[in-house]
Write a structure and sequence with these properties.
20 helices, mainly alpha, globular, 4 strands, about 725 residues, homodimer, two-stranded antiparallel sheet
Chain lengths: ~725, ~725
């Protein structure tokens, strides 16, 4: 194939991915939705989720316009290409938003349909939930490959030199990253505010069970799962995917001048630039193939089905990578005295994969139910919530050790076999199967939602049982997904960092230079500031929610009366209540103003996402222009190191607390005594879980984006400083 | 004065400091000790503290011997000076241990005497407590100046070139730092294990009040205050003091070849090397002068007395610094194209002082009673312990921002006015008044102990009132002390870092080098690992203590009976108990086996200090030899940045939780409702305080030492890698 055909093929494969999502979406839509109550609940969740996206996108549109204006203004005096940076930026932002929209739309359709399917069969339910997840997964990679592919095609036809092309394409990554950060932060705040609000006032103060329709925050809680775990995660992975590809392309451009490359007619010396794009495109195909193998017969094991799909596409991708790498790169070449080989690049991909799996397994070890560290937290809950918290913090901090060692080895190893390009391509290798990986990830919250709907719609217990079974199996996969997310974030940040240095024309950033050291300190501090902002934002948003729920309980007479009835009949089966009580209780049905709670959560989360987002975007700009490129380099290194550490610490501490709490729900043995749900010890574990919530769902995952976003911002402004 | 006289004068001033401590010690010893019960309690505390030191020093002696052997062995093939490195190391370790011993001996004599003095007058009590603290303060600086001064005198007479002299002197700093780390960690574990053990079983399970003699862990708890806050802190500041001086000396050696210096006959070109030593020596004199102004008449304000002493010696020191710097340094000189001025060096000292005060005031803002951040934690306690914890973590993380910005500005500023030497001398400036600063710091735990003794000895309430008043006033000073500790640790680490680079003959450590980046990640991870180890060590040691206290309550019949009596008469005034009950109760007096608890705490803390200590010492050795000097440089930079951040985060979160809890003890208004001690809200705040304990007293303060120790180890091994 010659260059034209291949670079044309890339966006076509992107379109193929999108067509797959259209097909899957229509398949999901064709499934039955179940009872009228289920339909109503499903609609309420969908409307809430969409209302959030609408409100969020309104604010983000303003942000995009302002930044686009600034980019156009700052570039107007320098380069003719600046307007195209703006175009790339807008397109990146738009694609990121669209990926979130497509994914959430599918997820909020799949949830009720999964519940309905679970009424008859586990296999059916898996199919529906996974189809919903697959829309998200393939939507993300399809849009990424399509967007980057088209821009590359467009700009290479402008007759520019490759570095200029890539500078402009960087705008796409900037757009994707900035939207991702806002989406992650806002989604994280939304879901935790609703969660805490529903729990603290509904469950604790008013004493009504979880997911009870009388609790005005219930629907908001379920909406939160969608905006946080689906839309937020989708935007997150979109930016990881795009960032790793762009970082590798920029580094690969250095090879354009090498004889062995220019002697190869196919890409006019750009093979190393096109390689990551091509791998990503092929990953779409292997992911689609994989989805067809996720099937389970009744009585079968859903875990095996998911593993089957992922393993198969993983193996296919590995074979394809070998073939593509050896076909596209010269067997051996050298640049600036460093020797490279095609096999070295392939080994770098393998190193990335092993590192990703390694970090994933460690994540599972530190956070999984019944593992030694989680059991340690359980044991420490016996002496109260303080010791539970100390144990969780300690486990979270300890859990950084092995992943960091793995990362350090991977960085040195990938660099050893293929230089900086090796570090970058290792991240691409980790993410090339994002399509199916994300499908599995997104299937989790869909099953979770399906369970909530089963509860709210009063479906028989076995339905909830099936959705719970679905929900439980995704854990290991999710842990490995997290490992890939963290590993690729670190490697991508390093790739972007090197790309920044190339673009800013600096050869070395010397730590012993005090300006660099000052940058390192400031950068290291940002993840602390960012986490603190995210955590206090969750606190404030939850307070708003608590006040609203209290207001409704006090001012809506029917609700107040129904709560009184519930209190009066505490511990009495609903059927044994007096007729008068039943009447009062039924009268409250539908009186809770769910929409108000949704509005509160929406407003609060969007209000609170602004400051952390601006901190992330403005700090590299300020340091870059005030302190120069070397100080900015120090800032990036600092934010990368502590960002990765704080992300691992917070995510794993949160995950471990969560599962420690869950272990009490099934009953757990500590030194010969059994402890169950409702015991004082369980309550101590609930405190840990609540502390862990903003850790693992708000600040932790946002940090991965933070460090890449800052690197991308640096890369974008590099030509101007 | 010519060189001989001046370098002779330095150790003489060190001796002067030590003579002052001898004089103060004998003065303290001459004070009355009070009632027989007070004497007995005081003796028990003193014996426990000394038993701990003895056990600790036994282990540390082995450590010192092993390291000395390794140093001698590794050096035997290379340099004739290696045996003198060993000598320096052993002397540093010994001096550090001696400083802790002198300080603790004085503190454990001063505590009962302070209690006794407080029976009659506040002014008297202040005088005794401060005298005890002054022994510690002047002991530390006296030993530091004496040790360094003698070694410098000795080695410069060997006819070596200055770099060799300084390499050998570095061993002193290494000895001081390693002992300091072990002492801080062991002391921190001891005090928290005893504290938690006494609280959880004694107060919560058995329901007996704090500091009650029936609680077998009470004495251990009071011993803990001495081994943690006195001996631990003394070793800590000894190493800071020595580290900053040595770092500056090494950097100053670069000027020895500059014409303007060699033209100056006084120090044969070594003025910049001798300057930090001389400043430190003069600081002894100004500190001693300051102590004479710490006096308060009855009814006077002890805070003013302390401020008076510190301010006066601060102003004297500033004047002396100006005179010495301008006298010792040429007005203007240049090296490698960089211009330096004597005034620039003086400005660097001022920058250091401003930075230290700035960080101190911020520390006070984030942790002081009634400040906005602490009130935020109080407000968040209303919704339970989980929100209290989240708020505390958030405050701790947020509190890193301003100190880091100050540090970054100070680094750039000090470097701007006086290069790397400016950064180093800024740290010396911060610490030159350590003598009186530490006297004020150590006076805190002495007053605290005095209060405990008043309680245990059943003294009238006004005695406790006076000691509480003494205890309360040290807070702002202590916060500023913390600011100086953190600021100087960061600057000293940077100075040692530069010294390491000079010794290892590397000009630049390029972050873009993957090996450096890997080192940066690994170094950044170490403070997380170290904190996790410290926290789980506290957990395990506390468990040992809990088991021992439970065992005594169950197996000592008199104790068991007395506890039964207390439970039976709960809420009844002791005088109204039946005669039989009184008899049973009295029979239990002295039956609690305090010594066993002391032994448990001692054993556990010494067992648990080993691993964190070895991690700190071995990691630079392993990385240095396996990864080379550049990777080691990355490691040091990483550990410095996250070490400082985690130290600020943990210390401030812990301090803020502590004071939030204290605010409930006086009663606090949240949104119009008053909350008091014993309320559910107060209990939520107690959880935060317990979590904060190992943060602020074990892992947080140890990190300051960790980062310097690792730099010193790197500096010591630099010639070999």
């Amino acid at each position: 194939m010659d260059i034209k055909t291949l670079t044309l093929a890339i966006p076509v494969i992107g379109v193929l991915g999108l067509l797959f999502t259209v097909w899957k979406t229509s398949w999901v839509n064709k499934q039955e939705e179940g009872t009228g109550k289920m339909v109503r609940i499903g609609e309420a969740i969908r409307e809430g989720a969409m209302a959030f996206l609408k409100a969020e996108y309104k604010v983000l549109a303003i942000f995009v316009l302002v930044v686009a204006g600034l980019l156009a203004w700052s570039g107007s005096t320098s380069e003719d290409s600046s307007i195209l940076i703006v175009l790339s930026f807008v397109l990146g932002a738009f694609s990121s938003g669209l990926a979130g929209y497509i994914g959430m739309k599918a997820a909020t359709k799949a949830n009720t349909r999964t519940t309905h399917a679970a009424r008859t069969s586990l296999g059916r339910a898996l199919e529906v939930a996974f189809a919903g997840g697959a829309v998200m997964g393939l939507g993300v990679v399809g849009l990424g490959v399509l967007g980057l592919g088209i821009l590359f095609l467009l700009y290479t036809n402008m007759g520019w030199e490759i570095n200029k092309v890539l500078t402009v394409i960087t705008g796409f990554s900037f757009g994707a990253s900035s939207i991702a950060l806002f989406a992650r932060v806002a989604g994280g705040i939304y879901t935790k505010a609703a969660d805490v609000g529903a729990d603290l006032v509904g469950k604790v103060e008013a004493g009504i069970p979880e997911d009870h329709p009388l609790n005005p925050a219930t629907i908001a809680d379920n909406v939160g799962d969608n905006v946080g775990d689906v839309a937020g995660m989708g935007a997150d992975l979109f930016e990881s995917f795009v960032g790793s590809i762009v970082g590798t392309m920029v580094i690969g451009a250095a090879f354009a001048t090498v004889g062995e490359f220019s002697g190869d007619a196919r890409f006019g010396g750009l093979n190393a630039v096109v390689l990551p794009l091509l791998l990503a495109a092929v990953g779409i195909i292997t992911s689609i193939i994989g989805t067809f193998f996720v099937k389970v017969k009744d009585g079968g094991d859903p875990q095996k089905a998911l593993n089957m799909g992922e393993m198969l596409s993983g193996v296919l991708m590995l074979i394809a990578t070998y073939l593509i790498v050896t076909a596209m790169l010269p067997e051996r070449w050298s640049l600036n005295g460093v020797d490279y080989t095609a096999m070295g690049v392939f080994y770098a991909v393998i190193i990335g994969l092993i590192a990703g799996f390694g970090i994933g397994f460690i994540t599972e070890y530190y956070t999984g139910t019944g593992t030694k560290p989680v059991k340690e937290i359980v044991d420490n809950s016996v002496t109260g919530s303080a010791t539970n918290i100390i144990a969780g913090l300690s486990v979270g901090m300890k859990s950084t050790v092995v992943p960091i060692v793995i990362l350090a080895i991977a960085i040195i190893g990938a660099h050893y076999v293929a230089g900086l390009y090796g570090i970058a391509i290792a991240a691409v290798g980790m993410l090339s199967n994002t399509g199916i990986q994300l499908a599995v990830d997104a299937y989790g919250p869909i099953s979770d939602n399906a369970g909530g709907i089963a509860e709210m719609a009063n479906l028989p217990k076995e339905v909830r049982g099936r959705t719970d079974k679905l929900d439980a199996v995704g854990n290991t996969t999710a842990a490995i997904g997290k490992g890939f997310a963290i590993g690729s974030a670190a490697l991508t940040a390093l790739a972007l960092f090197s790309a920044f240095m190339m673009t800013a024309h600096i050869d070395a950033i010397n730590i012993a230079n005090p300006v660099v050291m000052a940058g390192l300190f400031l950068g290291g501090m940002l993840p602390f500031l960012f986490s603190a902002l995210a955590m206090s934002a969750v606190g404030r948003a939850a307070m708003d929610m608590i006040k609203e729920v209290r207001r409704q309980f006090n001012s809506i007479p029917e609700l107040k009366a129904a709560l009184g009835v519930m209190k009066r009949n505490e511990g009495v089966d609903e059927e044994k209540w007096s007729e008068a009580d039943k009447k009062i209780f039924d009268a409250a049905d539908g009186k809770a103003e769910h929409a108000k709670c949704i509005e509160i959560s929406t407003k609060a989360s969007i209000r609170e996402m602004i400051v952390p987002g601006l901190v992330a975007i403005l700090s590299p700009v300020i340091i870059g222009f005030a302190g120069g490129p070397e100080m900015l380099g120090g800032l990036l290194a600092g934010v990368t190191v502590t960002g990765v550490l704080m992300a691992i610490f917070q995510s794993n501490a949160g995950g471990a607390w969560d599962n420690a709490k869950k272990m009490f729900e099934d009953g757990v043995d500590v030194n010969g005594t059994m402890y169950y749900k409702g015991s004082e010890t369980h309550k101590a574990a609930v405190v840990g879980d609540t502390v862990g919530d903003p850790f693992k769902d708000t600040s932790g995952p946002s940090l991965n984006i933070l460090l890449k976003l800052m690197s991308v911002v640096a890369l974008v402004i590099a030509p101007f400083i």
